[in-house]
């Protein structure tokens, strides 16, 4: 990536972690291979010359403990801290407000996705800079069932053309700012930033990612993430796992 590109990264770590099943930690702060999950994610961006600023967004109730435990790391890595809101969109918007004026490309990454390789970041940054909106994603490979409240299957969902969104999700600052302004006017709680951007008519480019770029949701995911971290050096050389050939055709 060009050093002239000014990228600001927002690490979203303000969620409630209600599915994590650990009373001692929220998932971004859980230990993974000797370091907290969020720090694994942050280091992938603070080491890049095209990333000019990293903002970590945490819940207000976590601020005191977070600064006490990780304040030295924040200072050493030059990371900005922001307090989140009641839902993800509000938290990311507050992170956006902390970015310096010279940032022109914004990447939002889940702090609970610690297994991200630089080559995948390169590709989604390039696509975001070129098109104004790009996300990492992987095609859905399993059979999908829609299930009712009674736990009975109501239908089998055709997976053709379905992809699972990942992060980073990368947007021009102007596109993301306009999307948030429209979302505030419309209300609602989108599940990711691409949904906000889609709502203003902006087309979003999908960049094939990898199943290794997993999101920590349960304690079992921590064990998988340890294995994924060990596989990342090979992933950095091999690039993303995806169904496209070099000519862009489906394989």
At a glance:
By secondary structure, this protein is α/β, with parallel strands linked by helices. The chain is 36% helix and 24% strand.
Q: What this model shows, in words?
A:
The protein has 251 residues and is an alpha/beta fold. It has a single domain (7-137, 163-238), classed as Spore Coat Polysaccharide Biosynthesis Protein SpsA, Chain A, CATH 3.90.550. Helix content is 36%, strand content 24%. It has 7 helices and 11 strands. The strands form 3 sheets. Strands 5-4-1-6-10-7-11 form a 7-stranded mixed β-sheet, sandwiched between helices. Strands 2-3 form a two-stranded antiparallel sheet. A two-stranded antiparallel sheet has the order 8-9. α5 crosses α6. The longest helix has 20 residues, at 219-238. The radius of gyration is 18 Å and the shape is globular. Mean pLDDT is 88; it is low at 237-251.
> Percent range for helical residues?
25-40%
Per CATH, the architecture is Alpha-Beta Complex
Q: CATH superfamily membership, which one?
A: Spore Coat Polysaccharide Biosynthesis Protein SpsA, Chain A
Structural class by secondary-structure content: alpha/beta
Number of domains: 1
């Amino acid at each position: 990536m060009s050093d002239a590109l000014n990228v600001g990264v927002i690490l979203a770590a303000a969620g409630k972690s209600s599915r994590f099943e650990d009373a001692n930690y929220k998932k971004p702060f859980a230990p993974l291979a000797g370091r907290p999950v969020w720090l694994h994610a942050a280091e992938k961006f603070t080491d890049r010359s095209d990333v000019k600023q990293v903002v970590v967004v945490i819940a207000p109730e976590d601020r005191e403990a977070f600064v006490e435990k990780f304040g030295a790391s924040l200072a050493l890595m030059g990371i900005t801290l922001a307090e989140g809101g009641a839902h993800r969109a509000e938290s990311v918007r507050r992170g956006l407000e902390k970015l310096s004026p010279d940032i022109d490309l914004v990447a939002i990454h889940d702090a609970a996705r610690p297994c991200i390789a630089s080559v995948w970041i390169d590709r989604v940054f390039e696509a975001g800079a070129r098109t104004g909106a790009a996300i990492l994603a992987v095609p859905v490979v399993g059979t999908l069932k829609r299930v009712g409240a009674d736990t009975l299957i109501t239908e089998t969902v055709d997976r053709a053309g379905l992809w699972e969104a990942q992060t980073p999700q990368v947007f021009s600052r102007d596109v993301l700012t306009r999307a948030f302004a429209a979302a505030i006017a419309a209300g609602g709680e989108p599940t990711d930033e691409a949904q906000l951007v889609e709502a203003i008519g902006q087309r979003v480019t999908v960049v094939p990612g990898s199943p290794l770029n997993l999101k920590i949701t349960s304690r079992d995911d921590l064990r998988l993430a340890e294995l994924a971290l060990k596989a990342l050096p090979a992933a950095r050389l091999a690039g993303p796992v995806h169904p496209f050939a070099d000519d862009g055709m489906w394989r």
